[in-house]
Amino acid sequence: MASVVALDSLLDSRRVWRGQPQARPTSRQPTGFAALDAQLPSGGWPESALSELLLPMDGIGELRLLWPTLARLSQAGDASSDEKIVLIAPPYLPFASAWANAGVRLEKLQIVLAQPRDVLWATEQCLRSAACAAVLCWPLQADDRALRRLQVAAETGQCLGFAMRDAKAAANPSPAALRIVIDTAPAQLRVIKCRGGNPPTQPLPLSALAR
Predict the structure, then answer these.
(1) Strands, DSSP E only, in 19-103?
(2) Which residues on neighbouring strands pair with residue 182, listed in sequence order?
(3) DSSP H or E run through 110
(4) What burial class does residue 200 get, using C-beta atoms within 10 Å of its C-beta: 0-12 exposed, 13-18 middle, 19+ buried?
(5) CA angle, corner 24, sides to 36 and 155, nearest 5?
(6) What's the pLDDT tens digit per position in 136-176?
(7) Total-model pTM
(8) Residues 89 and 119: beta-carbon distance below 8 Å
(9) I need a surface site. Which of 74, 83, 102, 140 has the fewest CB within 10 A?
(10) Residue 142 CA from chain centroid, whole number
(11) Given phi > 0 = left and psi -120 to 50 = alpha, else beta, which region is 32?
């Protein structure tokens, strides 16, 4: 019978090679909220990837969470830049003054009014086009296969993708690189999946999102 050898003795005798941990590069897409960036492994939104915001209802702070990033992206380059911010099938007509007050350049903002059956297709085309800085969508239904297509499209087009979905979808697996649940009682964020690390164990109160 083979004898049991302590791992420490193997390391001390240099019979086992120990690799060095490699630091994960910092995201070039900070969220605009230091408290949230601190909870994410890369310190910001996963680049060229799909992120999910899982909501019990519309209008509970999901846009406020995204506005700092969208404002920064819209202000990059000149007004004629091809990199647009696209909203696909938003549940309500965006209030232009609120977006402008948040710092988003309205000339960079485009709205696509799509039928429910076409939302995922339109989102995939925009993500893949390499003509968008960010794409936001509100699909009523999305299975694992459809979400995987969006994730691949975001990688191909090097675009930030955000899918606003019902909080009930948190119970199902997803290929999205980041999944955040927004709760109302109490008002908080819960990171339930993040690429490159384990989700934080503690929720983040919405009150902590002070810019």
Answers:
(1) 50-55, 84-88
(2) 189
(3) strand 109-112
(4) middle
(5) 80
(6) 999 999 999 999 999 999 999 999 999 999 999 999 999 99
(7) 0.86
(8) yes
(9) 140
(10) 16
(11) left
